[in-house]
Design a protein that fits this description.
Elements: E1 10-18, H1 22-31, H2 33-40, E2 44-49, E3 60-67, E4 70-82, E5 86-91, E6 96-106, E7 109-118, H3 129-152
Antiparallel strand pairs: 1-7, 2-3, 3-4, 4-5, 5-6, 6-7
């Protein structure tokens, strides 16, 4: 629910080099999304695949998240599915987008980038935009740290 005037998305972004191939990273994040998402995103307390496997462009899912004691449910779909380069989900019921990008970093390593965007803010939330942006940035950093630890086999 966009308020008065067009607002820019509020986003958090982070990236890091992971000691594994882009194929392995994409297998875990893209192909294995429904099996692994809750491992790197502990705020997700419920996850359901609404489409027939395997994961593909257009796959739909539903998630329940709990953050700071508040639960919310949203439906999303896979809006980009490019093995070894990009995996993206976009909210259907809520205006958000999560983007995972993969780039060769040499020596068998991969740069994994994560961006989370709130595409719209309610008018009532706009005064808190800076606080929301900080929380999204912190969340993006934590997401990349969790993914790196999982892919490299070290505790998060």
């Amino acid at each position: 629910m966009l308020g008065i005037g067009g607002a820019q998305p509020v986003a958090g972004q982070s990236d890091d080099v992971v000691k594994c191939s882009a194929e392995k990273a994409y297998d875990y994040i893209g192909w294995g999304f429904f099996a692994n998402y809750r491992k790197w995103c502990p705020q997700v307390v419920g996850l359901e695949e609404l489409s027939e496997p395997p994961v593909h462009l257009g796959t739909r899912g539903r998630q329940v998240t709990r953050d700071r004691g508040l639960e919310s449910e949203s439906t999303f779909e896979v809006s980009a599915f490019a093995p070894t380069s990009k995996f993206e989900i976009k909210g259907v019921s809520e205006p958000f987008r999560s983007v995972y990008e993969f780039a060769n970093a040499g020596d068998g390593a991969t740069r994994v980038s994560f961006t989370f965007e709130l595409l719209q803010l309610d008018l009532a939330m706009r005064p808190f935009q800076k606080l929301i942006r900080t929380a999204l940035q912190d969340g993006a950093i934590q997401t990349i740290e969790n993914i790196k630890a999982l892919l490299e086999g070290t505790p998060a």
